[in-house]
Fold this sequence. Notes:
By secondary structure, the protein is an alpha+beta fold. Helices cover 29% and strands 29% of the residues. It has two domains: 7-46 and 158-226 and 324-373, FAD/NAD(P)-binding domain (3-Layer(bba) Sandwich), CATH 3.50.50; 54-155 and 227-314, D-Amino Acid Oxidase, Chain A, domain 2 (2-Layer Sandwich). Helix 1 (18-29) packs parallel to helix 6 and helix 1 crosses helix 9 (346-360). The longest helix has 21 residues, at 68-88. Bound molecules: flavin-adenine dinucleotide.
Amino acid sequence: xxxxxxxxxxxTVVGAGVAGLMLTKKLSELGLxxxxxxxxxxxxxxxxxRNEGWLHRGTYHATSIKDRSNAIQVARRCIYGHEQxxxxxxxxxxxxxxxxxxxxxxxxxxxxxxxxxDEANVLYKSVLLKxxxxxxPNVRTEEVAEAxxxxxxxxxxxxLYRKLLTSSEKAGxxxxxxTDLVFRSPxxxxxxxxxxxxxxxxxxxxxxxxxxxxxxxxxxxxxSVPLRYWKSHLMVVPRLTRSSIFYLDPREAAMMNHGEYSxxxxxxxxxxxxxxxxxxxxxxxxxxxxxxxxxxxNFDKSRNMPVACIKTDLAEKSAAARSLNISVSEPLxxxxxxxxxxxxxxxxxxxxxxxxxxxxxxxxxxxxxxMDTI
Length: 374
Ligand SMILES: Cc1cc2nc3c(=O)[nH]c(=O)nc-3n(C[C@H](O)[C@H](O)[C@H](O)COP(=O)(O)OP(=O)(O)OC[C@H]3O[C@@H](n4cnc5c(N)ncnc54)[C@H](O)[C@@H]3O)c2cc1C
């Protein structure tokens, strides 16, 4: 039997969540021969579709992150991502014509919230509680200190990823689902799929494999990546309101509407776990039920579906601090690891990594700009 020919690419993106799909689209549209390799048979089957589908616009992270300058940075990256994603896939945005509302329970927090929003350029408008109650009679406003109309929206992640995939394929990217890469050296690998093995080479590898990157780098190159896993719970419930509504306070509910259903999360509920599995824990579900009762008069806990999801965190210097920020590192020359922080930050991360890739794949027919030489 003839030996299969070698697959050869400029860049190989490993892992097809939101970060991998976005990067594949951008690199292939820029004319690089690009492969996307996903080990599961379906793309984006992990956190990228198990999340709240909240296309952030900085509203939440500007206040939930303790350190002010870090919070402002994340908020700005979310605003950038929000605008980019909305422009790319307007058809995936849910309820475009309906407002969303952010609630603050703790009055002492309001001034700081507003001042951070102003600095980060978050869009908001103060709303009378009476007005909110008229619009959403099912929402408990007795303990709300302040309510704001904001520009956060829900996004249909499947539609967004479908469009990213189609654009990538149109631009010539090769998509390999249900495929494993087994490395022989940092430059050479074998691609395994459907029981077949094929030689594989690429000038560059970018790992957007979420929590899978740890095992991949350890088994392939004996490189240890200090990842931590944070388990969070969500709940899918029949839609309760016209508008998406979320508290900014910790341990309160945040709800994004998606058609006839809503996805509810609990702010700052994540806890470290050893195994990145999707098993739902009783306490996680109970906490969401309680937060939903604090937000709604008529929450029926018998009709819901719990979901667990994992956030991956690169534990850098501080062992204790939780940092779900973006992270881009190069543990081995021409092998780049990427964690986008939030789905909404993926456009920012994609731009950053694209620049790195271009610097490596020497494009010397085009002259450098003055700032490229600094
Ligand atoms: C509960 C929860 C709610 C969230 N809600 C939101 C939200 O509403 N809005 C928001 O902006 N962000 C949200 N996030 C964060 C967001 O979901 C993640 O930041 C984002 O999905 C991470 O995307 P990713 O592409 O890095 O990774 P992933 O989605 O984890 O994708 C990684 C892919 O790599 C594949 N893979 C793994 N190992 C290998 C391998 N060896 N070879 C090939 N492929 C491999 C996996 O199968 C997977 O498909 C939430 C996170 C959690 C936990």
